[in-house]
Amino acid sequence: MTEKKLLEELDQLERELGRPLQIDQPALLHEFHDDQEHEGTLGMKVLSIVSAFIATGFFIGFTFLIGLNSTLAFAVMGTIMLGAGCVFCRRDLLGILGEAFGVALMVCGFPLFLAGMSDVTNTETGMALAALALAVLILVITENKIITFLATVTMGGCMLFLAHDDYGRFGAHLYVGFFAIALTLWVQSEALLLKSSGLLARRYDGVRTGLILALLIGAGYLSDFRFWMDLPRLPNWYASVALVPLLFWLVYDLLKRFNHSQGRVGTEMPATAKATGPVLSPLQRLYLAGLLALLIPTIFAPALSATLLCLLLAWKAGYRTGTALAVIALIYFISRYYYDMNLSLLTKSIILSTSGGLFLAAWALLRKKISSHETTAPGPGGR
Amino acid sequence: MTKITRLSIKLLARHSDLKPEELDEALDTHVYADAGRWFWLLRLLLPAIGIGFLACGILFFFAYNWSEIPKFGQLGIAAGAVIIPCVLSLIPSFTELIRKLLLTAAAFLVGPLFGVFGQIYQTGANAYDLFLAWCIFILVWVLAINFAPLWVLFLTLVNTTIVLYSEQVASGWSYTMLMFLLFIVNSVAVAGFVLADARMSGVDYPDWFKKTTALAAVAAGTVCCCSAVLDLDDKPAQVFYLVPVLALFAAVAWAAKRYKNLYHLTLLALACIAIVASIIIRAGFSTAAFLFAAIWVVGATTGSLIVLNNLRKVWRHD
């Protein structure tokens, strides 16, 4: 995007708002040019992360081969690397050069520092707590998108370990419920978060991706109980206490927004709604009832509803990477769900055929409505 | 109404007196999915999940009663599972997407048909025979409907056939040779898709498909090179696999630079970093080699990112 295009868009937005905005133009343009200068593609970010992990593997291999077993040495090396990583990650110092170094140093420094702390935190729980505290600290100190993403996922991993360690399977449900609420609030309150403070605004994107991955990891943990937990089948609905209402609220909010936007352009909005605020139409109530019918069978499969929540939130926000992650996870969890189901092939067949028929019936019902929007739909969204 | 990008709105949020409710309104109008995009998602998800579930339900039903069904019936059911979606795909009132999805489902069910045939007649064939026949018999559909998900199925089957052939028949194949073959197959595929996309009118493969195929080719080539390097003492002749792989990587890098394709350059950068790291480890399998490899990976990544970022900035305006 060029500066000219940016200024045109800002003008358009000002016209739409109907009031002049007080804009700090030098600061805005400085951040814009900084973003255009250093914001790499998704592929470049993946290259940075993969390389950082490969380098960490080699370096840890090196420390083992030289027979280094002093916790003090590990702690010192880890501290130096984490400190240097924080400095290098600042874009205003070295730009993308420092960013690549910074990510590698922090990824390498993190396990080394924890290894150095092993005398102090001599239990697994202690180690997980130390890792969690360190990840929170890194998240507060660093603005870099890759680091904030990795710190959020690390926090998720530590919390999942601690929850499972303390409360067993129930802990994993608590974790999924907590992260589902956190992700929903994070995405739904985007405007508020971006305006509340620079600290949150600059970390918004990295944390959002991290929360999606952390929630999917938790969902994966719940979906595959035989392999991961080696536990018998237990009541599997605890996380659904949070997931089902969240999904319901999300869809209700979306329908309300559609009514509101239709009201803005003066079409299809009931007269009562214009006076009293958005009211759901009978068809929209039918959509909600359909959603409820869809969610009831997922009460005992929280991995499915968690992934559905990720999919809806990512799609709503126009976030392609999140959508792709959620779709891949959804396909896997659905297959896993039916594979693990402790029922006869006949019962599985009836359930699958009935649900397939219901989805096709819903498609047939909505087809006319969908076709009328076909020409305006731009495809899997996101800018 | 022209859509405003998320970047502009975010910059304005940070550097103006825009209120949270105004920001929310702007995001809602310009960035968040509107009704059209939600219906696009439903148009794709509902029939895909519905057809998938229904097909699985039918399969499970026959699996449940399988031993009770006479052999002729078993063959009839398996053949019917292929024929029915084919016939349904001829119904003109279905959209093109649905018809292609139905034919993809039919192509997928060709495999179970061969499986049933082999089971009833006790052909004694290896698993690779089944996959090879599956590939051959769906080839016409793959070429005729030219649909990305069906190509994914076909390429997965071709790769599986090669892997199974190396395990069950070709006893003398090394791991490096196997990876080399997979590299060649996937490279030919990706070259074909890119050329067809550029030269043939009416052909427009989705971006995710070309990227996935390229990822498969580069991954196989990289593993082939790393394996050849690390196994050099036992099989020195394997070093000759490096020449064509590296030559093709160089040619792709040249083409990617010429046609301004940052994705392929990023993939190749990662491949080169991994191959050189394996050379460093192999050159001196000692303590220092691990340190040098770590330094190389960090240094090369930094260098690659600087080059890639410069290219991105230059190409952005074209």
TrEMBL record, chain A:
Pfam families, A to Z: DUF4401
Keyword Nucleus part of the UniProt annotation: no
Membrane spanning residue stretches: 46-66, 72-89, 96-117, 123-141, 170-194, 206-223, 235-255, 286-315, 321-339, 346-366
Residue ranges constituting the DUF4401 domain according to the UniProt record: 44-368
Record-linked InterPro entries: DUF4401
Keywords, comma-separated and alphabetical: Membrane, Transmembrane, Transmembrane helix
UniProt keyword annotation of Transmembrane present: yes
Name the record gives this protein: DUF4401 domain-containing protein
Native source organism of the sequence: Neolewinella aurantiaca
Taxonomic placement: Bacteria, Pseudomonadati, Bacteroidota, Saprospiria, Saprospirales
TrEMBL record, chain B:
Domain DUF2157: 44-151
Keyword match ATP-binding: no
Annotated InterPro entries: DUF2157 (IPR018677)
Chain segments annotated as transmembrane: 38-63, 75-95, 101-118, 130-153, 173-196, 236-255, 262-281, 287-308
Swiss-Prot/TrEMBL keywords: Membrane, Transmembrane, Transmembrane helix
Superkingdom of the source species: Bacteria
Protein's recorded name: DUF2157 domain-containing protein
Organism field: Neolewinella aurantiaca
Upper taxonomic lineage: Bacteria, Pseudomonadati, Bacteroidota, Saprospiria, Saprospirales
